[in-house]
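Task 17 of the worksheet. Students: predict the tertiary structure of the chain below and write it out as structure tokens. Keep your answer in the requested format; marks are given for formatting as well as content.
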Amino acid sequence: MNRAVEISVGSLSPTINWTTLKLEEFALPPLDQQRRIAEVLWAVDEMLVANHKTLQTVERYKAGVLEDQFSARHTKRLRLADLCGSGGIRIGPFGSQLHAHEYVDDGIPVVMPANLATDEITLGKLRRITAAKADELSMHKLAEGDVLLPRRGDLKKRGFVHRAQDGWICGTGTIRVRIEATENRRLLFYALSRPSVSSWLERNAVGTTMPNLNSAIVSDIEVYWPTNPRLTQELIMKADAAIRQVENCRATIQTLLISLANHMDSMSFPSPNPTPSSR
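Model answer:
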């Protein structure tokens, strides 16, 4: 790449002329060494392909566990309010409690519907407020295991609050759901992520231009709750652990590939001869 810059012409839009490029010589390892390098790279590539297939298998297994454990034969129907108790369902602060000019560049994160994406809370476009303002909104502080729903817009979105997000603020347009049994909070996320719940919310949301949810509607959500929460939790945790293991393995393989590439880049080869095999 350094050589490409050296032989380029023009300043606004650097260009390399073919008449110059065709005379460039490249240091190539001997053919037997090229074969050894190719064998290693193909082996790593095969490992990545196998890892991807394994990940797909484990993810299908987890999907099967969820389908089975949240089926009618393993669950009972409950109103969400019965699981949450008093204060478990809370709507984020309204505009009168949190104004646009109170957002700052550095401070306590505020989770909006735009930050909800399947399991994770995305960090892109994350708004923040000062610690003092967060204390004013202490009733809207998030705790590990909370599940977040949007008040409006795409009602299929969900967010799960992980340990690193404990103490963040439930933002305007977001609904926080918290059950009393802390050991079952992960189950709540999966129960509320079922397609039947999303369909129910879309049917019961109020408004025509943009359907909205309120705490009364969310309280009435009928969820399929496992009759043996501990067993369901264990099965899901094992599936999640297997997925993490496969993903960690993939990260290790990718690190190995980068290391190999860097090693080959730094290897010293004999100076090229002006022959077709070295061009």
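Marker's comment: Residues 155 and 198 are 6 Å apart (CA to CA). Residues 76-227 form a domain with the Adenine-n6-DNA-methyltransferase TaqI; Chain A, domain 2 fold (CATH 3.90.220.20).
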